[in-house]
């Protein structure tokens, strides 16, 4: 029993050691802080930056790396989901697995392709370019607080300098843009 408890504590400690930065701690109704709470913009868009997410990374199996946010949706409706990646190669993003994105019961899976390349983006430094990939669209029916999650092998913690030096591509952010008719 002691071994199981020790192993569990070791895993929790390692996951905390390799998590992304968490600076935003807005409070919920119970007085406990919400880590990484994101508010919907006035234009209806939602911007989710990986560096501001609660991240979980697995060095052994990076395909299960996860970033999570608490998002307050003030305007419901249909949203297009875009991924932004920092990449050196503007012809191949080199995602090994599909990226999974979920909001409540809505789930999208896609293999990111380069739909737009932004050459002089302030989000990345040379020699990287920003590449945007359309993932799909989803409908959020109600307003309120949602747990939003993305799973990808390209979620690399900022404090992991060994992996980031070897990676040609890393996931930067997820944007939800409202679909207007």
Q: Would you write up a description of this structure?
A:
With 181 residues, the chain is mainly β. It has one domain: Galactose-binding domain-like (Jelly Rolls, Sandwich), CATH 2.60.120.260. The chain contains two helices and 13 strands; from the N terminus they run H-E-E-E-E-E-E-E-E-E-E-E-E-H-E. The chain has helices at 2-17, 161-166, and strands at residues 25-27, 33-35, 37-39, 46-49, 54-56, 66-73, 77-87, 99-103, 106-110, 116-118, 129-140, 144-151, 169-178. Strands 3, 5, 6, 8, 9 and 12 form a six-stranded mixed β-sheet that branches. The termini are far apart. The relative contact order is 0.24. Mean pLDDT is 82; it is low at 8-19 and 21-33.
Task: Furnish the topology, listing elements before pairings.
Blueprint: H1 2-17, E1 25-27, E2 33-35, E3 37-39, E4 46-49, E5 54-56, E6 66-73, E7 77-87, E8 99-103, E9 106-110, E10 116-118, E11 129-140, E12 144-151, H2 161-166, E13 169-178
């Amino acid at each position: 029993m002691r071994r199981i408890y020790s192993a569990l504590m070791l895993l929790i400690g390692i996951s905390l050691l390799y998590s992304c930065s968490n600076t935003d701690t807005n409070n919920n109704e119970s007085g406990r802080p919400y880590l990484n709470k994101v508010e919907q913009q006035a234009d209806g868009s939602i911007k989710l930056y990986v560096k501001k997410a609660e991240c979980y990374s697995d060095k052994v199996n990076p395909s299960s790396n996860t970033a999570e946010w608490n998002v307050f949706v003030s305007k419901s409706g249909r949203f297009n989901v875009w991924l932004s990646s920092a990449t050196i190669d503007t012809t191949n993003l080199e995602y090994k697995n599909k990226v999974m994105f979920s909001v409540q019961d809505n789930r999208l899976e896609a293999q990111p392709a380069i739909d737009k390349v932004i050459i002089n983006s302030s989000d990345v430094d040379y020699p990287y370019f920003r590449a945007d990939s359309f993932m799909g669209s989803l409908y959020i029916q109600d307003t309120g607080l949602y747990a939003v999650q993305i799973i990808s092998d390209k979620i690399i913690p900022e404090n992991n300098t060994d992996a980031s030096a070897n990676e040609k591509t890393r996931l930067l952010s997820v944007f939800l843009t409202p679909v207007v008719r």
